[in-house]
Structures are given as structure tokens and as C-alpha cells.
Amino acid sequence: MLTRRSPCLRRLGGVAVQVVVVAALSGCGTDLHPGAAATVSGTTITDETVDDLTAAACVYTVTQAKANGTSDGKPSLAIADLKSSLLSSLIAFQLTEEAAAEMKLTPSQAQVDKAAQAQTLPEGMPEGEGVLIEDFFHDVAKNQLQQSLIGAHLSDPSVTTVDMATQQNVDAARDYLDKYFAKADVEVAPSYGRWDGVQLKPGTGSLSDPVSTTAAEPVLPGQENSALESLPPSQVC
Questions:
Q1: Cβ contacts of residue 123 below 8 Å, gap of 6+?
Q2: Could you tell me which residues are beta bridge partners of residue 194?
Q3: Which of the four pLDDT bands, split at 50, 70 and 90, describes residue 121?
Q4: Could you give the C-alpha distances from 214 to 73, 134, 210, 211, in angstroms and in order?
Q5: Phi, psi of 102 (to 5 degrees)
Q6: What share of residues in the chain are helix, strand, coil (percent, to 5)?
Q7: Which residue pairs, CB below 8 angstroms and at least 24 apart, start in 205-210?
Q8: Cα distance between residue 83 and residue 225, in whole Å
Q9: Which of 27, 179, 194, 218 is buried deepest, with most CB atoms within 10 A?
Q10: What pTM value is reported for the model?
């Protein structure tokens, strides 16, 4: 179980990432233990981790909408998509951490804290869920700093600190990290989707159906709410 949690995608206050499905192990050809959503280089990300973060993200989304005065009482996120996106982010955080560690590149906690301050909790956010979202914001901030460090170091091996890196270095790191992710040891419970070597592709959300390798029909502009409203209340937030 990872020790820290933290984007719901851009829906979570501009943080970069969107996430997936009802958690649990289908047992369809994996070596994962029950209760494991994924393993990354031998490190387990549990169903409980994903469930707790998803619940907090839902509370954050609803609370943020109310604080902004944009809440219309209608659902804005499907739980399945949220879980998948969050798990994809947690996997990416772990792999980026490993890539940075191999290069001996580590942003300081003070630098991470400062970067995470760009994201704030809305007024009225419950304390328990707020702690999980703040941890997630820290993980996002750390991930972005690690990417910039990796990119800067690849361009100039003398660069080893965040102070010497720039936002442009994030783009420079992308190709390297794509290749790093592709060869990484990642296994995901089929109920969450399929790891394509770079990110998690959402599955059906079923615990028994195999994950489809074909894309779902695209949702056209204006159809988002109608698609969400057709789902049971337990599957949206």
C-alpha cells in the first residue's frame, strides 16, 4: 500500500490526471493477490487505497462545485472512470519516482510543499477527505518536479536540483519516461482496465467481463450529463 496518496485530473482544481472502475480482483489471468488493484515493480497499490482516494475525490468535486457556485445538483463524474484515472496516476507516480531515483534526482520536501501550495481545498471540505486530497496534491507536485528534473538532467547531466530545472524540461522527459514506463513491471487487476505501457486504459468496470481492447463510443458534447444521469447514484458523484 502506497504511503501517500494524492490528481483527480483537471477536474480536481487544475491538477494534471483523470481516473477508473469498481475495485476488486477478477482473477482473469493475473498473479495479483486479493485486494490488490495493481503492482508496480513489486509494490502493491491496494483496492482500499483507490477506494479511499476515489471517495475523497468525489467529496472534493462536489464541495468545490458548491464553493464555486457551479453546482447544479447533477452528477459530474462516473466513479468507474474516476477510479481508473486515479489508479493510472498512482502507477505513474511510482514509476516516475523509480526513474528519478535511478538518476539520484530527488526534490526536497520543502520544494514539494511549496509546489503543492498551488492547490487548495475548498471551504467546507471534510477533514478526513481533505487530508487524502492534500496528500494527493503533494504527490502530483512531487511527480511534476521529478519530471522537470529528469528532463533537465537528460539535457545537461550537471543539473541535479529543481532550482536549475524549467517547465520545458517536463516535455524533454516525456519520451524518456514513456520508454521507461513501457518496460516497467506493472500488473493491473482487469476490473480496473488494461495497462498499455504508458497509462491505464479503462475497462468495463465488471469483475467478470474481460477488459475490452476497443474504445467505447465517444461521448458527444452535450451528452455527458445525460450519460451520467443514466447511471445509478452509487456509480456517480
A1: 67
A2: 201
A3: very high
A4: 33, 35, 12, 9
A5: -65, -30
A6: 50, 10, 45
A7: 205/21, 205/22, 205/80, 206/22, 206/26, 207/22, 207/24, 207/25, 207/26, 208/26, 210/28
A8: 19
A9: 194
A10: 0.76
Rg (CA), the chain: 18
With beta carbons less than 8 A apart as the criterion, state whether 23 and 83 touch: yes
Q: How distant, in Å, are the alpha carbons of 78, 97, 161, 204 from that of 212?
A: 18, 30, 42, 7
**What is the C-alpha to C-alpha distance for residues 88 and 192, in angstroms, rounded to an integer?**
9
Secondary structure (3-state) at 46: strand
For 118, the 3-state DSSP assignment is coil
Q: Which three cell numbers, joined as nine digits, stand for 100?
A: 528519478
